[in-house]
Amino acid sequence: xxxxxxxxxxxxxxxxxxxxxxxxxxxxxxxxxxxxxxxxxxxxxxxxxxxxxxxxxxxxxxxxxxxxxxxxxxxxxxxxxxxxxxxxxxxxxxxxxxxxxxxxxxxxxxxxxxxxxxxxxxxxxxxxxxxxxxxxxxxxxxxxxxxxxxxxxxxxxxxxxxxxxxxxxxxxxxxxxxxxxxxxxxxxxxxxxxxxxxxxxxxxxxxxxxxxxxxxxxxxxxxxxxxxxxxxxxxxxxxxxxxxxxxxxxxxxxxxxxxxxxxxxxxxxxxxxxxxxxxxxxxxxxxxxxxxxxxxxxxxxxxxxxxxxxxxxxxxxxxxxxxxxxxxxxxxxxxxxxxxxxxxxxxxxxxxxxxxxxxxxxxxxxxxxxxxxxxxxxxxxxxxxxxxxxxxxxxxxxxxxxxxxxxxxxxxxxxxxxxxxxxxxxxxxxxxxxxxxxxxxxxxxxxxxxxxxxxxxxxxxxxxxxxxxxxxxxxxxxxxxxxxxxxxxxxxxxxxxxxxxxxxxxxxxxxxxxxxxxxxxxxxxxxxxxxxxxxxxxxxxxxxxxxxxxxxxxxxxxxxxxxxxxxxxxxxxxxxxxxxxxxxxxxxxxxxxxxxxxxxxxxxxxxxxxxxxxxxxxxxxxxxxxxxxxxxxxxxxxxxxxxxxxxxxxxxxxxxxxxxxxxxxxxx
Length: 668
Hints:
Shape: globular
Helix content: 10-25%
Number of domains: 3
Number of strands: 36
Structural class: alpha+beta
Distance between the termini: 63 Å
Strand content: 35-45%
CATH architecture of the largest domain: Sandwich
Number of helices: 11
């Protein structure tokens, strides 16, 4: 009977979807009264309907523009969904040409006293923000947002470029219904790439139309003659692809993903060729090698790297104090970090240029790291730029210039490449900031050659904790904790705490460790990038041990125990990316009180993930009134396959279970 009811519900829902006529401004009371999304009660918001139309419009004497029209209706169920009331529309905005947003209209709908009340978005609440030299965004937040609101917006984006934004079907919230269409004239050839895990299919048809454009002609035998202009009518065919989808589930972001945008269901279009009538075919899509050659030739790399007069005196001082190649590298690297501050702009082209950035002491990632490459080369080292895509920028599925947005420096030494990024104050050689750890980059040379370079750290992000604990007869503990942070763990610590006073760090530690009372806090290496960060403090706690009658119960690792797993999804469709390998070692020495004996301790274990992806070793031993605990957690791969997700979840569960097992003491 339940199966029959379920089938009837699905049929009923499908009929509603197919019969409902979505029109801007036509919001129903039923939509406003809905309190939860029927197919996912955990959703804070849902896209009830989205329509996206992309087409080409011919403008006489200008050419084709790409027109994209968007209409969206969205339901907000609770306060956690309020963030979806803010929208950002990105557009290209260079000094020569820009994309235009027009026809923006947005309304918030609420049900008040059984009447639908509309609140329109005011023009004064729409803001244009610059993201970098080339991209801006139009941002707005919908007015009068409440739990239960329905919001709508629509707009048109006109682009003089042949860029087609990704047709995205999946979001962090569910999509009830979406219609999308892309109509492309036969002259423009695009490569298509599907990404994501939710299948979508296109209906394809051919449409015909004609355009009139002005053709310029000149007498080739008489170059002094005036050009003549004539109106030419051309018939053309367009390929129309239509997508109609419904009930697309939310893609929930979990820990350790490089960029969730890489895995949302979408169709990407890459402009490949132009087949204009009576003209040779023009090719725009190339191999990665062709892209790299274009970047080096046209994006200022060559000219900027060889500028050196502006730093010659400073370089001479650095080299006078450096005896080895390693000392030269570190000396130049640290000088550039101090000399030119990062303006937070990425990019593979100049902002101020190397000379101006050096003089004004500020620049983008290109300005800073090409100064670094230039100085390293001038010092007699072999250095080249490495272009890459940051984690936030995502992974490009096509060979395209837009696939890169960042540049670092690489120095070739007999033992291998040394990667450097002078935008990061606490970065060290081969410890790139986490934003740059995105698989691979490409090292480019002035002769047009290039090679793939791994961005993966060689050394693990590591912590080593030594914990000495004394337990008194009442179950109160005191002792000392010392933790060393190494490699990327040290970099992360400095990024988080370097600008914070030690007293404030203590407050955060006490909060994170279950109300521990901390004293005699000391911190070394806080701002010294070439040393480990070492954190030492004494502690006191009255609630770390459960005393029941004549027994004491406590976790072997106390407040250093791992108690929650970052992996909670039933099924994960996108890869696990840790960014770096991981190592966490904890050594605990426990002195039990006089008059107590050890009744039971957890078993020691050693388990390994398949294919040497990681391991966990837990060893516990006793000697008189001393208990020694050793815990070593390791992840030995940066990218963990989705197929082994269940094994990884079980691995973390086992670590947590072992951390929560108790040592039992009995009063003798």
